[in-house]
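We emphasize that the prediction below concerns an isolated chain of 99 residues; any contacts that depend on oligomerization or on bound cofactors are therefore not represented. The input was used exactly as deposited, without trimming of termini.
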Amino acid sequence: NCEIVQSEAQLKKPGESMRIFCSTSGFSITSYWRHWIRQGPGKELEWIGEIHSGVTYYSQSLQSWFTLTNDTSKNTVYLQGKGLGAEDTAVYYCVEESH
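Result of the prediction step, given as a token string:
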């Protein structure tokens, strides 16, 4: 069995930072690219970035605010956001890219 567990909901004030995670069991995070996307209220899905074995790619419009990291020993990837504003209110999703 494979399972993905994400962080609980967080409530932040403007200007604060956030750090959310995505943990997996049943397969290694080093096997696949892991993407972070988000969807704000009434908005379309927006791609933030992707990470694989420490290699990262970011959306050009969001790369100044978000950082992706991974901890292979915990099979977990992290999304950190800084200087958040009301426009960053969204549901954030961790997505595995399989081939």
